[in-house]
Inverse folding.
């Protein structure tokens, strides 16, 4: 299963089924979806000479061109299409929607196609953001779709969008999975129920492939592992996301002083950027070695291009020039990115912060952690948000420890200039993912046996003090695949349909021959994506 290839298949179909010169009209949501998996050069190779937004009413009339519309089946996009059809700017229209289109919306489009320019309307199930081959999301942001309503319940808009996105992933991969959900999560259960209802209701779509007992959909809740999102990441892709920011594959570097114009905004793409594909999971130390080798490769090619002494040398240079320019731009991009990451790491003292984070996440040593936290909170060079994250980690680990100093640390934060509203996030996180809310003992410190396991774990050699932590999701999947602790996982992740009889998690073969799709209510992390990618390798 590959989320990027599944999406690219539909884009290829959309652009290839209609021959000749054409325009591609997108809406505000399908535009970033396509930008993640496609390039301008690919669109041009498919005779797509103009890309615009359907909401843009100031487009020129080009009746000699065909128009492909790829939009989400939302009321806003349908209204924009209606306005387009009332005054068509192109010769023929081919409408593709990214998910299930309501009958009422089809009728509205038909009623307003007075010029009879619409040649076809199709559903192509590409209603998700394919960030990497093994990571997708549905585009929820606090501004557009807040996740929670009252308490720990779904905001209706977020639930609806999640069901749409997840069903689109299943349809694009031609799967009708057995659904399991985390027992302690009403949100995971609700999402599973809504998705199951949709699969049963849309029998004409999902009925073409019967229930697939070889495919498991695990719906898990972020609250059962609130630790992973709080840790500083040290792999290339994750650092770019956390420290600089990546929005739908784009990185904005315009804020960097004296930045060169050509790298004010850069793109990240595994398909188009070999260095990034090879280096995305390297830790920061190894990344420096890798980029040094990359620069050396570029320099050696530069020297060879300077040695033009004959017609054959000139011919070879001209043939290699496009690739040389691409290499030059890529080297500049990655040297700039890594230089900016180095500056941020030094300025924010992230090595010291990360060492304490990892200690809090992985080791039970209360006195040492408390002493280090007090010193960090008093250090003016440490950013307030990093102090806050470390105190939240402390609160999650030691909330039930008799000598816990959570109240003292909160007061210390306020005394050292951290805003009181930000400090209140400590209590919010404890209510959301504290020990009473979590289903598992992620710190291995809640009973004598697990404390012993934790001490033994701490005695083993650690390759890197900044990457000791392993996400709970990675441990869960590895145990399931190997058939370990089967009874535990079956109790923790019950079947949504009690009548279903999928293969047991704890059988001797584990889940080796099964496809597993995991959806995390509350969002997945790139550290978890890396773990899944390594399991798939």
């Amino acid at each position: 299963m590959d989320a990027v290839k599944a999406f690219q298949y539909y884009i290829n179909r959309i652009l290839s089924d209609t021959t000749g010169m054409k325009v591609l009209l997108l809406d505000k949501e399908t535009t970033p979806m396509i930008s993640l998996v496609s390039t301008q050069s690919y669109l041009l190779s498919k005779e797509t000479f103009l890309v615009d937004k359907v909401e843009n009413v100031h487009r020129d009339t080009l009746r000699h061109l065909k128009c492909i519309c790829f939009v989400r089946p939302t009321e806003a996009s349908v209204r924009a299409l209606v306005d387009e059809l009332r005054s068509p700017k192109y010769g023929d229209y081919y409408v593709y929607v990214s998910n299930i289109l309501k009958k009422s919306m089809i009728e509205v489009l038909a009623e307003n196609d007075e010029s009879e320019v619409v040649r076809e309307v199709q559903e192509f199930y590409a209603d998700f953001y394919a960030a990497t081959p093994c990571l997708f999301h549905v585009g929820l942001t606090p501004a557009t779709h807040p996740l929670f309503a009252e308490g720990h319940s779904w905001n209706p808009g977020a639930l609806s969008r999640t069901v749409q996105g997840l069903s689109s992933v299943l349809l694009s991969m031609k799967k009708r999975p057995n659904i399991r959900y985390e027992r302690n999560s009403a949100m995971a259960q609700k999402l599973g129920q809504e998705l199951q209802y949709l699969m049963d209701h849309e029998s004409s779509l999902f009925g073409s492939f019967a229930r697939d007992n070889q495919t498991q959909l695990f719906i898990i809740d972020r609250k059962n592992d609130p630790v992973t999102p709080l840790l500083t990441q040290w792999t290339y892709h994750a650092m770019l996301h956390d420290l600089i920011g990546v929005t739908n594959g784009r990185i904005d570097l315009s804020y960097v002083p004296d930045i060169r114009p050509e790298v004010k905004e850069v793109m990240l793409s595994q398909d188009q950027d070999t260095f990034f594909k090879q280096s995305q999971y390297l830790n920061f130390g190894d990344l420096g070695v890798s980029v040094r080798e990359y620069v050396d490769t570029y320099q050696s090619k530069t020297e060879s291009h300077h040695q033009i002494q004959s017609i054959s040398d000139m011919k070879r240079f001209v043939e290699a020039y496009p690739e040389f320019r691409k290499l030059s731009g890529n080297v500049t991009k990655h040297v700039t990115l890594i230089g900016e990451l180095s500056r941020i790491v030094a300025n924010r003292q992230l090595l010291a912060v990360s060492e304490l984070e990892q200690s809090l996440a992985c080791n039970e040593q209360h006195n040492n952690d408390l002493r280090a936290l007090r010193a960090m909170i008093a250090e003016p060079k440490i950013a307030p948000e990093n102090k806050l994250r470390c105190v939240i980690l402390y609160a999650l680990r030691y909330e039930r420890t008799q000598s816990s100093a959570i109240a003292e640390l909160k007061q210390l934060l306020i005394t050292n200039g951290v805003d009181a509203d930000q400090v209140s996030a400590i209590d919010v996180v404890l209510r959301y993912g504290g020990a009473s809310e979590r289903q598992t003992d992620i710190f291995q410190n809640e009973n004598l046996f697990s404390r012993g396991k934790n001490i033994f774990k701490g005695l083993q050699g650690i390759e890197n003090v900044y990457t000791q932590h392993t996400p709970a999701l990675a441990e869960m999947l590895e145990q399931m695949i190997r058939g370990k602790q089967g009874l535990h996982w079956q109790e923790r992740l019950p079947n949504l349909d009690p009548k279903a009889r999928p293969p047991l998690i704890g059988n001797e073969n584990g889940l080796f021959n099964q496809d597993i799709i995991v959806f995390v209510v509350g969002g997945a992390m790139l550290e978890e994506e890396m773990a899944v990618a390594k399991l798939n390798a």
Notes: Confidence is low (pLDDT under 50) at residues 447-462. The CA atoms of residues 431 and 437 lie 7 Å apart. The longest helix spans residues 311-347. The longest strand covers residues 62-71.
